[in-house]
Amino acid sequence: MLKKQLIMEKASELFAQQGFEATSIKQITDYCGISKGAFYLSFKSKDELILALIDHFMIQIISDIDYIVKSVTEDENLLYQFFYTTFHTFQMYSDFAKIFIKEQSQTLNEELIKKIHSYDLLLENLILYMIDRIYGDEIKHIKYDLMYCIKSFLSMYSNLLLFKNAPLELNQLSQSLAEKITILAEYTTISFLSEELIQMTRQPMHEKMTKEQIIELMEQKINEMEESIEKESLVLLKNHLLESNLSPAIVKGLLENIRNHPHCKWIAYLLRNH
To answer: Keywords for this entry (predicted)?
Structure first.
């Protein structure tokens, strides 16, 4: 295991137990069995480590949701798949999800707040894309209200899932929430949130990465990976980005090869949206 990955995994466990502020770099290095010098070779500070962990966690969430929203072919099944995928990913990363949710309401770190808001905007845009795809112009007047309802359901039931130790069955939960959203979409007549109001509350989004930045990121990941189908697929996708030499069917297959690899999830997301 790479030292940087070891630090992130062990620190995530400590943060989940104690919180960000209560966990010191010395506790992290002792828990990892490394020196402080080894820590600072990977991260300049504890804040940089926290931001890297948030990136890692949110990349899993956003990438998985993006894939589902844009690949599920049956619109009637999309809401269910959306909820199931989101809650399943939260379960997979439950230790860090707990502290991430807690810290959102407590942090005074401006950079951390900006980071959380930028990912929140990505999530909102995916939800709006899903709403437009399922319902079209029929609910245009209430789509922002519906988006906030979906976000509220995610927040409420994630807390129940992570902090109440409730034996939730994800299949039933996802079916139930999909049904609730469908009822709201069909019968809501009075809107509250307008597009103008939403735009007033939004912070700047992630800047869209250029092709050159994506290629640089791909080269970095290629150098980190061992020989594998995923690495070979990444090399082919990089060459395609440079030369456009592959058919859409091949590109789709290569993206499918890399989308679940921990080094490649974000790249797959970026390429799908490039």
So the answer is: Coiled coil, DNA-binding, Repressor
pTM above 0.85, yes or no: no
The secondary structure of 4-71 as a DSSP string is: HHHHHHHHHHHHHHH-TTT--HHHHHHHHT--HHHHHHH-SSHHHHHHHHHHHHHHHHHHHHHHHHHH
The per-residue pLDDT for 116 is: 78
Look up residue 202 and give its DSSP letter.
Answer: P
CATH of domain 51-201: 1.10.357
Q: Do residues 67 and 78 touch, judged by C-beta distance below 8 A?
A: no
**Helical axes 94-104 vs 143-163, angle rounded to 10°:** 120
The angle subtended at Cα 158 by Cα 134 and Cα 105, nearest 5°, is: 110
Segment 164-197, tens digit of pLDDT: 766 778 999 999 999 999 999 999 999 898 777 7
Phi, psi for residue 258 in degrees, rounded to 5: -100, -10
CATH code: domain 3-44 is 1.10.10.60
Residue 150's SS3 state is helix
**Pair of tokens at residue 156:** 């409420």
Token representation of residue 50: 């926290």
Domain boundaries, the chain: 3-44, 51-201, 211-272
CA dihedral angle for residue 250, residue 251, residue 253, residue 254, rounded to 10 degrees: 120
Buried b (16+ CB within 10 A) or exposed e, 89-124: bbeebebbbbbbebbeeebebeebeebbeebbebbb
